[in-house]
């Protein structure tokens, strides 16, 4: 006869890994406040960019299909290893699914045990926005206070909040091919105290904007901005072109811009940069932060942050969340790791559980 449930060996403390569900992530972000969360997360990303050479880096591992992409994004330093599972399916939204969903793990390099498992759909939106706003601190015109946002889907409000929290931008000009998306964003952002204009074309949205954020989703070489729409002195924050065959900007804009990237081996495959020859000069964002390369030089220069999203940003986000759990314990203990009394007796543990 099997032993009663009460006599089954309970998992040891080593078996449990802190798990941040979507519900707990929302509690954590709301407890800290979205804008303070974005500012503090940006500080973690900044700190990790400053020690860029210490990281074990690789372009993400992408599995492409006709409908989208599923990617694994690993990065490690001497103490921690992190990875994110993330998808990108532009057609999803029309079928009632999200374009991007994600979860991730942070582990101890010393013994390989995970120290955190977390939802990362919300966290990706937050880290993408924090990275964009951090980049703009080094690249956007100093007096920028109007941002155009083309593509008003899931990422839009997070981007807006990060640019306010980190760069003081409070005036927004929004456009999406789907007016319902713009109406949603106008509603959400007006409620957050932004001065928002609902524009009827991308041309109208960029009028008078010193920063242009493109965050559209379309699995093709799209032209969201044409050359005539980008005046001198503008900072472009292009986040939607992040996959082979998926771009947002006309090539001529790239030829007039100074291009800043996260990790060149990945951006050359996935970013706007895929439209240019393999040796086109780019500047790595971390080196601008470290002071070894120039960011914005003058008021006429067009700067382009050709963002594709890099694993170190997810690593920073997981590290940040793990630290925040010490003061805001919004997590569950997940029985994730098999931990037999005798590390070699994995089979015995299975049989004793009958
Ligand atoms: N760079 C990064 O780190 C990073 C991170 C997350 C997401 N992304 C990318 O950002 C993009 C936006 O993601 P999301 O989660 O907000 O997607 P989403 O599907 O929720 O929103 C995309 C919006 O773009 C609009 N759109 C599509 N084509 C357009 C066009 N020609 N002009 C104007 N609007 C258009 C759609 O109507 C939709 O509202 C995706 O391409 C995603 O892959 C990049």
UniProtKB/TrEMBL annotation:
Pfam families attached to this UniProt entry: OCD_Mu_crystall
Entry superkingdom: Bacteria
Classification via InterPro entries: NAD(P)-bd_dom_sf, ODC_Mu_crystall, ODC_N
UniProt xrefs under Gene3D superfamilies: NAD(P)-binding Rossmann-like Domain (3.40.50.720), ornithine cyclodeaminase, domain 1 (3.30.1780.10)
Stored PANTHER family: KETIMINE REDUCTASE MU-CRYSTALLIN
Listed name of the protein: Ornithine cyclodeaminase
Source organism of the structure: Arenibacterium halophilum
Lineage of origin: Bacteria, Pseudomonadati, Pseudomonadota, Alphaproteobacteria, Rhodobacterales
């Amino acid at each position: 006869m099997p032993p009663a449930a009460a006599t089954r060996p309970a998992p040891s403390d080593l078996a449990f890994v802190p798990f941040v569900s979507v519900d707990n992530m929302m509690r954590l972000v709301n407890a800290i406040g979205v804008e303070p969360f974005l500012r503090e997360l940006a500080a973690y990303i900044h700190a990790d960019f400053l020690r860029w050479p210490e990281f074990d880096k690789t372009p993400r591992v992408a599995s492409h299909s006709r409908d989208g992409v599923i990617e694994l994004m690993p990065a490690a330093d001497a103490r921690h290893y992190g990875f994110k599972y993330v998808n990108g399916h532009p057609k999803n939204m029309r079928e009632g699914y999200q374009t991007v969903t994600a979860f991730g793990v942070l582990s101890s390099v010393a013994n390989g045990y995970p120290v955190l498992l977390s939802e990362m759909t919300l966290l990706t939106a937050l880290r993408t926005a924090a990275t964009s706003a951090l980049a703009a601190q080094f690249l956007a015109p100093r007096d920028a206070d109007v941002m155009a946002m083309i593509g008003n889907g899931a990422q839009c409000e997070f981007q807006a909040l990060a640019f306010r929290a980190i760069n003081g931008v409070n005036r927004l000009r929004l456009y999406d091919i789907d007016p319902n998306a713009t109406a949603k964003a106008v509603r959400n952002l007006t409620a957050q105290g932004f001065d928002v204009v609902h524009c009827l074309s991308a041309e109208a949205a960029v009028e008078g904007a010193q920063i242009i954020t493109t965050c559209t989703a379309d699995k093709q070489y799209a032209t969201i901005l044409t050359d005539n729409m980008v005046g001198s002195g503008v900072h472009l924050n292009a986040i939607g072109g992040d996959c082979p065959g998926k771009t947002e900007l006309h090539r001529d804009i790239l030829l007039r811009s100074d291009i800043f990237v996260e990790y060149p081996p990945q951006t050359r495959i996935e970013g706007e940069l895929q439209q240019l020859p393999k040796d086109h000069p780019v500047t790595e964002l971390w080196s601008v932060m470290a002071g070894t390369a120039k960011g914005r030089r003058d008021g006429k220069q067009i700067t382009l942050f050709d963002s594709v999203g890099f694993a170190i940003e997810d690593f920073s986000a997981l590290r940040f969340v793990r630290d925040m759990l010490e003061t805001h314990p919004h997590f569950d203990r997940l029985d994730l790791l098999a931990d037999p009394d005798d590390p070699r007796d994995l089979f015995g543990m299975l049989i004793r559980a009958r």
